[in-house]
From TrEMBL, chains A, B:
Residues 2-58 form the HTH lysR-type domain. It comes from Stutzerimonas kirkiae. This is ArgP/LysG family DNA-binding transcriptional regulator. Keywords: DNA-binding, Transcription, Transcription regulation. Pfam families: HTH_1 (PF00126), LysR_substrate (PF03466). One of its GO terms (molecular function) is DNA binding. The keyword Transcription regulation applies. Coiled coil: none annotated. Belongs to the LysR transcriptional regulatory family.
Amino acid sequence: MFDYKLLSALVTVVEQGGFERAAQVLGLSQSAVSQRIKLLEARVGQPVLLREVPPQATEIGRRLLNHVQQVRLLERDLQGQVPELDENRQPERLRIALNADSLSTWWGEAVAQFCADHQILLDHVVEDQAVGLKRMRAGDVAACVCAAERPLAGARSTFLGSMRYLALASPAFLARHFGDGVKADGLARAPAIVFGPDDYLQHRYLAALGIGEGFNFHLCPSSEGFVKLLLSDLGWGMVPELQVREELDSGRLVELQAGLRIDVPLYWHHWRNGGELLGQLTRHLARTAGKWLVPGPA
Amino acid sequence: MFDYKLLSALVTVVEQGGFERAAQVLGLSQSAVSQRIKLLEARVGQPVLLREVPPQATEIGRRLLNHVQQVRLLERDLQGQVPELDENRQPERLRIALNADSLSTWWGEAVAQFCADHQILLDHVVEDQAVGLKRMRAGDVAACVCAAERPLAGARSTFLGSMRYLALASPAFLARHFGDGVKADGLARAPAIVFGPDDYLQHRYLAALGIGEGFNFHLCPSSEGFVKLLLSDLGWGMVPELQVREELDSGRLVELQAGLRIDVPLYWHHWRNGGELLGQLTRHLARTAGKWLVPGPA
């Protein structure tokens, strides 16, 4: 079997963000922690950590971290049956990739009680909804929320519901750029706001209006910043309805064209052998996500 | 001189997120764009683009992009004097690294009018306030907002003001974990929320209370998600006062200890030879940032 003393040193250095704090948590000297990491690297024949501040796991390091996480989940199941195995049980860490818009809107409310009940700590990794599965394939996360339906080999996917996106701008922006109505040539010139290079929602909206060529845009990789830029009259953009109910009610943001919306389906992907905890979280999400997400298209 | 026809193909592919859209924007066939990129790579002797969807610039590619951006800023200055040089002037793109909390709060309002007046499109790159300078050093951005004062060689730094952070949690979280008052041993056990591996604000807060060892935390790399997790009773964490005025007024979030705050200074770093536009933006920010940021410590 692997030497879990060494693996646990790696996990602690990464979780605590440094050798000094890892040593405190493990009750070891800093040089003992460092020694364990070096021994681990000698065994796997390559670096597991980049010695940055804070230390970052290499690709092989991330695979080891993911393995330890899966082992911990299995241990947890066993502890449920044999509680005396580990008296000083630490809260479990679960690493989950999800799109920024979920994390900014419904996610916290959906998982809060579950985390408190099961003593779970969450490591959230933000990925655009189109690319979250990459993280799972890389062995970097235990589960992910993303727009792709097809599960990876060894994993399952569950439809949670769709996020509804509206094309919004401030009244001042609309007046400046679309004084005589929202038309195709104006839309191609008025600046849009795009979350990042993986965000094609604005392209899809324009395509639905028959606008295929390039357009001007600001890049803003922050959900809250995105809305702030809209409110500051900097551009138009696609925003989850969940995130801007108040701005819509007060009229601070308005739709470019009433009724033209994009629903993005969200799927929960998780490893099939991820242990009972992950199974419970899956059932919890499938049961509750409908409070925030709309039903179609699935 | 460099062949700007080739460089401009590179810039357009990256800005438009693909060869097909770049070809539309440049009015070329897709294979002509692809040919120009290959020629550029033959000249520099290594790949400038990773052929992913969307294409990503390699490190050398990013340096070329940054060079083109600087050249464009200089061209812009010249066009101010000789307007007939380029009739079909495109809006200028300015690539700026800043901390997520600035982008989520004051930044949009501070730059909106300036961008509209000068026809600028912004590419925001989010970096923790401690590491934004890395991006400048890598030649990846024209300017950055970060916590470090010392400018890079060839750059200048200007103090903008400080963001004030409060340690906050929901009343329900406080009641659950600190029924008999906020004390050191409780704080070490109650889960915190940490933005990412570069976020040491929670550590600094605990250190100020004499708590030096490790603590439990969720990771949440989203400013708005961070506040959502606080509101869902998942943990306590340091949040910019600017971001939660409403939650503080309504009592949905409360301070752990009244009066113990952390002020993080923010500096504007920009290349000295960045052209007149960057100089104007610098003066604009220095003049207006005080509306949102607190004066000390500088």
